[in-house]
Amino acid sequence: MYKYDLPQKVIDIAGVKIGGQPGEWPTVMCGSIFYGGHKIVSDASEGIFNKGAARELLRREGELAEQFGMQRLPDVIGDTPKALIKYVDFVLENVDGPILVDSASVKTLLETFQYYSGSEVMDRLIYSPIDGHHKDEHFDVIKKLGIKNALLLAFSPEAVMPNQKFELLLGKDWEKALKIGVVEDGLLGRAKASGIENVLVDVGVIDLQGTAWSALAINQVKKLLGLPAGCAPANALFSWQRKHKERFASPAQISATGAAVYAATIYWGADFVLYGPMRCAEWAYPACAVNDALMAYGSRLLGLRPKEKSHPLYNLK
Hints:
Elements: E1 10-13, E2 16-19, E3 28-33, E4 41-43, E5 48-49, H1 51-68, E6 71-72, E7 75-77, H2 81-94, E8 99-102, H3 106-116, E9 125-130, H4 136-145, E10 149-153, H5 162-170, H6 174-180, H7 186-193, E11 198-202, H8 211-225, E12 229-231, H9 233-243, H10 251-267, E13 272-277, H11 281-299, H12 312-315
């Protein structure tokens, strides 16, 4: 176990605490809903979906979060502004805390946030992601809309090594920026200049084996920046499963593999894990909760303690 020398930022978004030293706060679990190909969605453009099935997924995830002492941050994904707004409205009605508002389309994200701009729910929404596709005009709109919470995706096929991700986050002179303590370039500098106050850093995952490098990148972000960090190992896990479906066919094999992969990121400091489709909550929550309990117990030797009695360390006794 370890303790970072640099003070660790903890952000509080609608009651969910993200960040801190290992063992202080439960991992934030991000389960995806309304993603591409999700069977509960009948029309992805119009945002037509089975409300009963969606409500049950959210209910069950909330139940598991309480049972295991974990924190939750639903990842709400949409292809069009019309669909994403419908999804966000529905989840806001069925979940008390914050949500990730997620889309591969910058246009969809900006139009969705324009709809909510100035409303009381803006504090619960996290723009996801700010990535390399964002141009100057996009950051101008982000500032104009008053967006305060965002996930930065430090990922590209050309930036898979941990140090390469810092160039995406801080710019080409990232080592100098760290040395002088002034960040004006890269995704982080541009996000801050656009009024973003609460930043989550997603280091990205390129493939299953590459999760090891992602875990090391998370550790580097925590060590050098002190910011909440994590990734989406589920993307690599399920791509790998499809590629090797003849060898990993049973649910037990997949859940066991997933538990090992997610543990790798948590042991290297991940504050949040995008664990994939919300149906995976049944095995993802207990797997990550046990990891959290182990991390917290080991961190006692370094003088660290969980910040709340609902932490899995106490919850699993």
